[in-house]
Amino acid sequence: MNIPLKYRKIVSGVLIALIMSLVMSFTMTEVTMSFSSHFIVTWMRVFMIGSLVAIPTSLIVSPMI
User: Fold this and answer.
1) What integer pLDDT is reported at residue 64 of this predicted model?
2) Which of 13, 32, 41, 48 maximizes the CB count within 10 A of its CB?
3) If we measure between CA atoms, which residue out of 47, 55, 50, 65 comes closest to residue 13?
4) What is the pLDDT of residues 12-55, one digit of tens each?
5) CA triplet 47, 48, 53: central angle to 5 degrees?
6) In Å, what is the CA distance from 20 to each residue of 24, 49, 50, 59?
7) What global pTM score does this model have?
8) Four-residue CA torsion sign, 53, 58, 61, 65
């Protein structure tokens, strides 16, 4: 995939934020409730909330670093 240079930082920030929030939400949901019958639904809800926090944070903080 060839991403234009001016969008490369935004795309990488969003992808990193999504992957991190996916892994972290899975881990924290599993630690909190183990694998119960509502695990997938709870995990996806926590992932969506985490993504709403992670994406703007990634886009704001990464240029500062």
Assistant:
1) 82
2) 13
3) 55
4) 889 999 999 999 999 999 998 888 889 999 999 999 999 999 99
5) 95
6) 6, 13, 9, 14
7) 0.81
8) positive
Distance CA 15, CA 23 (A): 12
Tokens of 25: 């939400």
Per the structure block, which two tokens stand in for 64? 């500062």
Which pair of structure tokens corresponds to residue 42?
């709870």
CA–CA gap between residue 65 and residue 63 (Å, rounded): 5
Taken in order 41, 43, 49, 52, is the CA torsion positive or negative? negative
Q: Output the six-digit token pair for 16.
A: 């990193």
* CA 64 – CA 37 distance, rounded (Å): 42
